[in-house]
Amino acid sequence: MQNILLLFFLIYSSINLQARQTITLSTGEWAPYTSQSDPQGRIAQMIVTEAFNLENTSVKYSYFPWKETLEKSKELQVDGTIPWYKTKLRQEEFYYSKQAIIRTKIVFFHLKSLDFKWKSYKELQKYTIGATLGYKSTKFLEDKNLNLLIVPKEEENYKKMLNKKVDITASSILVGYNIINKTFPKTQTKLFTHEQKAIFPETGAHLLIAKNHPRAKELINTFDQGLKKLIKSGRYEQIIRNFMTRR
C-alpha cells in the first residue's frame, strides 16, 4: 500500500512540475511600480508575479531602457513586457491584458517657486517641458507641438528642473514623489510640488504580449485569469494598501 501511495505521489509531482512554466517579461526603472534597484519599488511586478503564480506560472524580469524594453518584446527576446498604457500604435502590434495592472494619474511637477497653473495646452507653449524617451506622455505632448527636452531616464527631468533647465515635467504622482524623495536631500525635496490637473484622463498600465508570439493569446488569458483571482481574493488591494502604509 505504501509503495502504491509513493508511486501516486511521484506521478502527481511529476505532472505538477511539468505543468508549471516560467516566462520572462521585460520592464524598466519606474519605481514604485517597477525597479531593478529598489526591492520596495515593485508594486506592478508584485501584482503580475502573484497573478501568474495563481495560474502555475513563474515570472522572471529583464531590465532595459524603456524604448528597448518594448523592442525586446517585439523581437521575442522576452515573452512580454510591463507596464504599458494603451496607444493606437501599440495596439496594432501587441495584445493587452483586459484588466490594467495599475491605474495612474499623470500630472505636471514643478518647483514651488514657479507660479504654474494651466487650463489649455496652448498655455504650455511658454514652458520648457522635461520628458522621458518612450513614454506615452512624451508622445502626447509632442503631438501638441510643445517645447520638450527629452531624456532617457525620468529622474533626469527633476535634476534639470532644479537646475532651471526645464520648467515642468510629466509624471505619475506616486512615481514623481518617489523620484524626488530618493534623489534629493530633504532640504530640496520640499522645493517640489505638482499641479492637480491631469495631463490626460487617468489611465491603466497593462501587460503586453507581442501578437507575433506563438503563445500570445494563451499568456494573456493566463494572466487575466490570475489577476481576476488576485483581485477577488483581496490580495490585490492588500498589495496597494501595504505600499501606501509604508510610505
Topology:
Elements (H helix, E strand, L loop, with lengths): L1 H18 L1 E7 L15 H11 L3 E7 L2 H9 L5 E5 L3 H6 E3 L5 E3 L1 E6 L17 E4 L3 H7 L5 E4 L2 H9 L5 E5 H11 L2 H4 L2 E7 L4 E8 L5 H18 L1 H12 L1
Parallel strand pairs: 1-2, 1-3, 7-8, 7-9
Antiparallel strand pairs: 3-11, 4-11, 5-11, 6-9, 6-10
What CATH calls the topology of the largest domain is D-Maltodextrin-Binding Protein, domain 2
Question: What is the highest CATH level, the class of the largest domain?
Answer: Alpha Beta
Indicate the proportion of strand residues.
15-25%
Distance between the termini: 56 Å
Order of helices and strands: HEHEHEHEEEEHEHEHHEEHH
The residue fraction in helices comes out at: 40-55%
Q: Based on DSSP secondary structure assignment, what is the total number of beta strands?
A: 11
The CATH homology group name of the largest domain: Periplasmic binding protein-like II
Total separate domains: 2
Oligomer: single chain
User: Spans with pLDDT under 50 lasting ≥5 residues?
Assistant: 13-17
Indicate the overall shape.
globular
* CATH architecture assignment of the largest domain: 3-Layer(aba) Sandwich
Main sheet attributes: strand count, strand direction, barrel closure: 6 strands, mixed
* Count, helices: 10
Structural class by SSE content: alpha/beta
